Amino acid sequence: MKTYYDFIKDTRRLVESAKKIATGKNAAFGGGKLADAENVLHIGGAQKKELFAKLKKIGLAPRAVIFAPHPDDECMMSLPVRVMNECGFEIIDAAVTLGSNMQRRQPRKRELRDAMDYLGWKMNVFGFERINPQTRRTDKKFWGECAGKIASFILEKKPAVIFAPHSRDWNKTHIGTSLLVKDALALVGGKWNGVVVETELWQAMETPNMLSEVSPEILAAMTGALSCHTKEVERNPYHLNLVSYMTDNVRRGAEIVGGQGGDAPNFAFGQIYRVLVKKGSGWKSAFKSLILPADKSVAEVLEKLIWK
User: H or E segment at 149?
Assistant: First the structure.
């Protein structure tokens, strides 16, 4: 390769070639799993024991819950994978809806189960309908029932970390899920205090505060898990776009999180988040800005947030 034209042609060729890879659980590592991959940071036994004891003392479980608007959204979030490996947490994907296509709901549930089995995550399906801003305005009784179920789930599971979309994530179900989780947390009040991570998939956040590196191993696992949603990626092979998406996140994150005019981090793939801390009825940004490379543990960041 001698020119950028060569680079661009080779990139296109690789994407076309990747379309021939069989989707499903064998797609990422040829039958292996992320746990078998090298160069993935894991929490040590002593640190894990200490972290879990601290969480128990303040009434939290070593657990993260993803409130995913649709089945497949969870597979496009890299930070939960890092939380699983680097904090030793159980990850639960809480599928808020099963999509708007009635005929696809049960198949999407089966595809979700395959993806969760591959990642080693648990799943809980709420499967609500009409989760959007309009329903929040026009059907307060139904909305309140849904928010109450989310609140009860949070109190039951006591997660240390919650993932949910940011409130301007374009897609109406993503925005609805963001509002639903916030309403549920308002119902919970001071009975749950922890870390809330806002995610972006459809529309970029204006004020993110974290850029997290995505290692090639984790990105491969995400792509393989996403490909378990077989019918979704057949109609649109967006699992193959994860690489370019994670690359562009580094371009944006270097400036938006790191600061205008700053040097770009020395990694290829990343994802952008806004990390908040909830204590009682109050919310605050966890930090002004943080670039988290793959060799720095999420557990160290989490401990500072919860016990500082």
Answer: helix 140-157
